[in-house]
Design brief:
This protein is mostly beta strands. It has one helix and 16 strands.
């Protein structure tokens, strides 16, 4: 039998290829890098999904795609009557994981301590910025805390006053925020060595 037009295109210029399936965490986007026969116009279209995604450049083989909500999505790249599909699993954004560190006891005369917080978030995989901040949320009467830098995970804290201070580390990915507290007991006798 004679070859069909689709078969001739496949042999001469290669198949239409939508790319590999992907997985993404909101609010990140994905990028499609499809392939279509040289000189043939191509179009991306959404075939399935819980909501309508935004294909930024549907008439280009490479395009960014934005998603309004989690779920399983399917898209098709079509050129010269030939099509190829790709699926995207979109996962809901989760708050960052934040840990301000273990409680500390500062002996009499010690006023400075190094804070070493940690924060992680799956939504920053594509260049998003995870912002953090230290604050003092509780202090003895007349007490105060000065941070060398309040917007970094590791920083020095200087205490004025005697007693129990509670410091809070907050982290946000731009949509969701999480916090963690750490207690610091300042200017106490050396018989006290551990604070939960």
């Amino acid at each position: 039998r004679a070859l069909s037009d689709h078969e001739i295109i496949y042999i001469e210029a290669g198949p239409v290829y939508a790319g590999q399936d992907q997985e993404v965490v909101l609010p990140n986007t994905v990028r499609f890098d499809g392939f279509a026969p040289l000189g043939k116009s191509s179009t991306w279209s959404q075939e399935d999904g819980p909501a309508t995604a935004t294909v930024v450049s549907p008439d280009k083989q490479s395009t960014e795609v934005r998603f309004p909500e989690p779920g399983q999505y399917r898209f098709t790249l079509t050129a010269a009557g030939v099509s190829s599909s790709v699926q995207v699993k979109v996962i809901a954004n989760q708050p960052p994981l934040v840990f301000a560190g273990d409680g500390m006891v500062l002996a009499q005369g010690v006023r400075r301590v190094r804070l070493k917080g940690t924060a992680a978030d799956s939504s920053i995989a594509q260049g998003k910025t995870l912002r953090c901040r230290w604050d003092c949320v509780s202090a003895p009467e007349g007490g105060r805390v000065t941070f060398s830098r309040a917007d970094v995970l590791e920083t020095d804290a200087v205490f004025e006053g005697t007693g129990l201070f509670t410091l809070r580390l907050a982290a946000t990915d731009g949509e969701l925020e999480a916090t963690s507290d750490v207690s610091v007991l300042v200017d106490v006798p050396q018989t006290v060595s551990y604070l939960r």
